[in-house]
Design goal:
By secondary structure, this protein is α/β, with parallel strands linked by helices. The protein is 38% helix and 17% strand. The strands form three sheets. A seven-stranded mixed beta sheet has the order 4-10-9-8-7-5-6, sandwiched between helices. A four-stranded mixed beta sheet has the order 1-2-3-13. Strands 11-12-15-14 form a four-stranded antiparallel beta sheet, covered by helices on one side. β7, α7 and β8 (216-220) form a beta-alpha-beta unit. The structure holds pyridoxal-5'-phosphate. The site of pyridoxal-5'-phosphate has 15 residues, from α4.
């Protein structure tokens, strides 16, 4: 069955459409933190952040079913649900976040954020990190592992483990090149960079410097946000106050739902300047999904669960990891854990192949994690936020066997 699907996939998608795991999985069902393959084998999902309230949560399923059975249209009509959702979403942010532009993907949310920054500042230049990923449109992908161009200048991501930053630094040159700054777009936790331990005060200082230079600060919360860090938003964990936030992935728990939020003034400037329209955004379906997700966050207290279970998991992992020669560093923010798999602690040289081996062995033991980060050597644990201590305990047993084998 899997071989047949693999061949059909290569034929119809073309080779190069990435799949996880040396022996790819055929997943047919999800429930809570569990995924099931076609043979009924159960896996603990410790990778997927989109189903943040757990796979196929009954409250979400009911809300979506009810909505699509009743109405789903575009956003050129008044609708209470989407306004309620936008109000609830804004209320989770700092006071300066007042109004929202809805969209469908993280890429679009970042496109809107960049356009908004350009409109507000009249600038064109963006600062990002040198190992960033913010999406795949023509505009946003210029920030992916950027090496520097007229309008995009990368700074070394704040990596406190290897401290090679100076070697990779490309110094800011907007001023000398006559490019006006629009802003800085940065993931609040530097998630794709490998969840580095961001030095205390770094983000706040960077934000101040950007504002002093006439730019605005955009926090990409697509991966970092909605409870992942044990706070509502990653910028709270990294201690800075963004002017604009972009959100996506977990907001709709599988229904495409993304948003860019800022002050009412900035949002209105953007709307005047762009006439932005997005066919599937601000729909009753998005509202139903978004509201259902927030309901579950409240009723199941998922932000605090992320903080407590994340700390529990990472403390126990550290005990195991301190005895493993190939593990150089264990970092966590809520239910987001990053483990540096290295050739040796002395050289700190990233061992991507070794990390991939661990990922595949854990899959054979029934636990799904990934490898990521600037060098692909970071074991990435980022389960749905309903992940509980009992799941952590089961994982820790298998993990200890695998990393010590
Ligand atoms: C930090 C970050 N921003 C933006 C995106 C793009 O989101 P999407 O794939 O929904 O366009 C991603 C996707 O992985 C991401 O990790």
């Amino acid at each position: 069955m899997s071989q047949d699907l693999l061949e059909r996939r290569e034929q119809i998608f073309g080779r190069g459409a990435h799949l996880f795991y040396q022996k790819p999985l055929t997943i047919v069902r999800g429930e809570g933190v569990y995924l099931y393959d076609e043979n009924g084998e159960r896996f603990v999902d410790m990778y997927n952040n989109v189903p943040c309230i757990g796979h196929c949560h009954p409250h979400l399923v009911d809300a979506i079913n009810t909505q699509v059975a009743n109405l789903n249209v575009h956003n050129r009509y008044l609708h209470d649900g989407i306004l309620t959702y936008a109000e609830r979403l804004v209320a989770t942010h700092h006071d300066g976040i007042e109004s929202v532009v809805m969209s469908c993907t993280g890429t679009e949310a970042n496109e809107v954020a960049m356009l908004m920054a350009r409109t507000i500042t009249g600038g064109e230049g963006f600062i990002c990190t040198d190992a960033a990923y913010h999406g795949n449109s023509a505009a946003v992908r210029q920030l992916t592992r950027a090496r520097g161009s007229k309008n995009i200048k990368p700074i070394p991501f704040p990596e406190s483990y290897r401290c090679e930053a100076e070697d990779r630094a490309q110094y800011l040159a907007f001023k000398t090149e006559g490019v006006k700054l629009a802003g800085m777009l940065i993931c609040s936790l530097c998630a794709n960079e490998g969840l580095p331990t961001i030095p205390h005060g770094f983000m706040g200082k960077a934000a101040d410097m950007v504002r002093d230079a006439g730019g605005v600060v955009i926090a990409d919360e697509v991966q970092a946000g909605l409870g992942r860090s044990g706070n509502w938003w990653g910028y709270e964990a990294s201690d800075f106050v963004p002017d604009i936030v972009s959100m996506g992935k977990p907001l709709g728990a599988g229904v495409p739902l993304a948003a860019t939020a800022s002050s009412r003034e900035y949002v209105e400037q953007f709307r005047r300047g762009s006439g932005y329209f997005n066919t599937f955004a601000s729909s009753p379906l998005q509202a139903a999904a978004g509201n259902a997700v927030l309901d579950v966050f409240e009723s199941e207290q998922l932000v605090s669960n992320s903080a407590t279970v994340g700390t529990y998991l990472s403390e126990h992992l550290e005990k195991v990891n301190s005895r493993v020669a190939q593990i150089g560093d264990t970092r966590h923010q809520g239910l987001f854990v990053a483990i540096e798999w290295v050739e040796s602690r002395d050289t700190k040289k990233p061992d991507r192949e070794g990390a991939i081996r661990i990922v595949n062995r854990l899959k054979e033991r029934g636990f799904l994690i990934g490898n990521a980060g600037a060098f692909g050597n970071v074991l990435k644990l980022r389960p749905p936020l309903v992940f509980a201590k009992e799941h952590a305990d089961a994982f820790l047993d298998a993990y200890a066997d695998v990393v010590n084998a």
